[in-house]
Every structure is written in C-alpha cells, then in structure tokens.
Specification:
alpha+beta, 9% strand, three-stranded antiparallel sheet, globular, six-stranded mixed sheet, Cytochrome p450
C-alpha cells in the first residue's frame, strides 16, 4: 500500500474501475439480483482484484474490499482508513443528498462506531465495561425461557415461519430485557432498525423514529434505573451525556437485533438443508457450534459494511482510492477469499463476521451465546422440524449491507401440551459481582417516575407476532396476574 497516487493508479484492462468505464459498470448491491446470488457476484468480481467498484444505492459509489488480507489491512489501519463519515467527500460536496437511503447506515453520529482515537476509546470503554457486567449464566437462562415461551406460542399449529415467529422476536425480547428497555420501546426500535438496514425509501423516516424513541427511552431510564446495561452505561465514570447515550444505544440496538436475527435464521437454514448436519438434529453428526462457525464464515449476517474513508489518496492493491471516498468491507467475500479457502474451519474463529481491529464487535460472546442457545432449544423442542420448501426457493431481502431471509417456513408434528403463559423468565440477566458497582433500583413493571411518561402502547403486529403482547404476559406473571 502506498500514498503515492501515481503508483498503480490505472486499473487492469477490462476492470469496471478502468478509466472511462463509467458508473454503469459499477456493481449495484441494492438490487434483488445481488440478494439472490451474492456468491456469484463476488466470484465474478474477483478477476478484477481485491478492491472493486460498487454502488450501494442509486448514485452512491464505493470501493469494496473482497480480499481477506486486504480487508484486515484496512480494518487495522485507522491512521489511513478512518471510520468518520464527516470525511465522506461526495457528501461534503453535495453529490450525495441527505435523503439517500443509505444515510442512516453511513452518516456521522457521535458514537463509538464513527469516532477514532481517544474519543473512540472513551466511548468504547462505556460499552465494553457495561456489557462485561452481564452474567452469561443468567443470559443463557433468559434466552432458554424466552425461546420456550415463543415455541409454546406456535407449537400446536404444526407450522411456523421461524423468521417472523422466532428468529426476529427472540433477539428483540432478550436485548430489551438485557439492556433494560421496556418492550413498547423495543418493538418500535426493531421496526425502525429493520427499515434502516434495508436502506430503502423508508430508511430516513425510520432513522428519525429510532432517534425519537431512544430519546424517550433515555429520559425514562434516567428516572427509573435498574440492574441493566443502560443504567450501567449511565452510571459509568465517563459520564456520557443524554445525546451521547442515544447514539451509543442506537449502535447497540442495531447490532443486537437485525444481525442477530439473521444469524439465527441463517444457521437454522443451514441445519435444515445440509445433510452434514442432519444427524445433529437428534444428537449426532456435526454440532450446532460448527454450523454457527460455518455461517459466520460463509454467510455472515452483515455481509458488507465497516465503511472507511481514506484520510489521503492511497493506492491499495493496485487500486487508487481518493481521499474521502467510501471503502466498504465485504465481510462475506473476504471470508471466502480463495487465497484463504480451507475445508478445516471447524473451531476456526478467524473470520471477519465480527469485523476486526479497534472497531470489532464488542458483544461477540453474547451474540454467539444467544444464537447457540436459541437454536439448541428450538431443535430440542421440535426435533422433526423441516423446511416447507426446497432451500433454493427461500428468498432473500434486498439491501447492500445484510444477508437476510424474507421468511423461513417450516413444518413439524404439532405439540398439544402448550403452557406458554406459565413458562416465563423471572429476572433480567444480572450483573456479575463488582465491588465498585453502585446499587441501582430493581426495575418494576408499574414504577414510573414523576414527570416521565411510560412507553406508550403500539399497534403494529409484524409477521403475526407482537413483542409487546408477549411481554405483557411476562409482566403479568411477575405481578401475579
């Protein structure tokens, strides 16, 4: 890699990045064709090298890194490749408008995701320290009981959409409980984050709704703290402001819902369609942990993200990158770089699904635990579950960033002994003992501090479920109703 723009500045003949090729030769990542066959797209692009030109949305150009070693170089070099979108040249020049559908995923926000240096370390410390206080054993227990609650709600039907009825709901319920977010806020945020990740026409409006909801949540939690992640973040010595809290929670909620649901759904898809794992459904063959590793390598829930901006003109693997032009990491393509290909990835955690470098995911352990326990519980409860349609007929949601199914329809032998109203978790994941911790108020379903509104009810019932409706049953159990 060199900062001399004259070195290697001319792409190889035939490359879509070649001078004069034009925007039309850029590969669009937002169309259904890409969602249907990203592997084929990555394979076709590899002949042009490890850095290729793409289009994230109409008129939004970027260079995408598809080589593993090249991706690591970018992710580990914040001195050359900044995460701060205020460096985005096209945005500063007005070429990209504020209403672009990718803006909610790419525009600057004062959070650990978009800052560098000491400011990044300051903000990241709050997130890291607070997440470390979650007790893994308590988290496992809550995932198990939440999974039981959801499975009980559809087991008598003999069929379900494991995406909308399970994979999309479980991370929402677990995350809202873990961070101390009442369910009505949680469902509003889930709907908003889903639209943001799709980077469609509703993304900008959804971003505004997410910020409004988070502001309301912060006010609620300032008045009603508890033994939860939000309260621990508020009590951290760094002393984040309310505005800073809003943006850090936006990152946590975005990372903890949409990518987690995709991880669970994609692993279930693999387990239910690949003969190598067939025995594992009854306790043999390759285990669930291996399926999880395979998905994180081959089909990660966040396929293309980790946007960086060169701080000066630079040549990366023969491709000239101009100062301030977006560089996106294809975590999926880099993981499957033929130069790194291996058939021995069992137990190998060197994939880039969690990113790498100073901005690597801070909740890898919790995310993996939630997915593993959710999948184990489902296969234990419904051992004869099978796909309703051939795996090749499953559809993928368009979008430049995620790898997300539209549905995961399954059938199984109906189970008649449903008692889901009685199988409820009794406590939030607790803090690991901390001598320096300050006692905080135990959250209550009925306690509302003066002058702070409780979360308002919501109406939408997305995909046949309502997180609020399930949560009301949980609260009812705790209050003895």
């Amino acid at each position: 890699m060199t900062s001399d723009p004259a070195v290697g500045a001319v792409p190889p003949p035939g490359c879509p990045a070649h001078s004069g090729a034009g925007v039309s030769s850029r590969t669009p990542l937002y169309k259904p064709e890409f969602a249907a066959d990203p592997v084929g797209t990555y394979a076709a692009l590899r002949r042009f090298g490890p850095v290729v030109p793409v289009e994230l949305a109409p008129g939004v150009e970027a260079s995408m890194v598809i080589g593993y070693e090249t991706a690591l170089r970018v992710l580990r070099d914040p001195g050359t490749f900044s995460k701060d979108p205020r460096r985005w040249r096209a945005l500063a020049e007005g070429t990209i408008g504020p209403d672009s559908p990718v803006m909610p995923m790419m525009e600057y926000r004062p959070s650990c995701m978009f800052t560098e240096g000491e400011e990044h370390r300051r903000r990241r410390a709050v997130v890291d320290d607070s997440l470390k206080r979650v007790d893994p054993l308590a988290l496992r227990t809550y995932v198990e009981t939440t999974a039981d609650t959801l499975i009980d709600s559809f087991q008598e039907a003999g069929e379900a959409d494991l995406l909308s009825n399970y994979a999309a709901v479980l991370p929402l319920l677990v995350l809202t409980r873990m961070i101390g977010c009442p369910a009505a806020y949680g469902e509003r945020l889930f709907v908003a984050m889903r639209a943001i990740f799709e980077a469609g026409a509703d993304a900008k409006c959804a971003h505004g709704e997410a910020l409004q909801c988070l502001n309301e949540l912060i006010a609620f939690k300032r008045a009603t703290p508890g033994p939860d992640v939000i309260s621990w973040m508020m009590a951290h010595p760094v002393a984040l402001t309310d505005e800073e809290m809003v943006h850090e929670l936006s990152v946590l909620f975005g990372a903890g819902t949409e990518p987690e649901q995709n991880l669970i759904a994609n692993v279930l898809r693999l387990l239910l369609s690949d003969d190598r794992f067939a025995g594992s459904l009854s306790g043999g063959s390759l285990p669930i942990e291996d399926a999880l590793d395979e998905v994180l390598w081959k089909d990660p829930p966040m396929a293309n993200y980790c946007v960086h901006y060169p701080v000066h003109d630079v040549v990366l693997e023969g491709t000239r990158l101009r100062q301030g032009d977006p560089v996106i990491i294809s975590l999926a393509a880099a993981n499957n770089d033929p130069a790194q290909a291996s058939n021995h990835r069992v137990g190998n955690r060197a994939h880039l699904a969690w990113s790498a470098g100073p901005h690597a995911c801070p909740a890898q352990g919790s995310a993996r635990l939630i997915a593993t326990v959710a999948i184990e519980k489902l296969l234990d409860r419904l051992p004869d579950v099978e796909l309703v349609v051939p795996v090749a007929e499953l559809k993928w949601r368009p979008g430049p960033f995620h790898r997300a199914l539209t549905a995961l329809p399954v059938r199984f032998e109906p189970v008649k002994d449903s008692a889901w109203a009685d199988r409820l978790p009794d406590e939030a994941p607790r803090s690991a003992p901390s001598p320096a911790s300050t006692p905080v108020m135990q959250p209550s379903a009925t306690h509302v501090a003066p002058d702070v509104a409780a979360p308002h009810p919501i109406v939408p019932d997305h995909g046949g479920w309502s997180a609020r409706r399930i949560w009301e049953r949980l609260i009812g159990r705790q209050q003895g109703r």
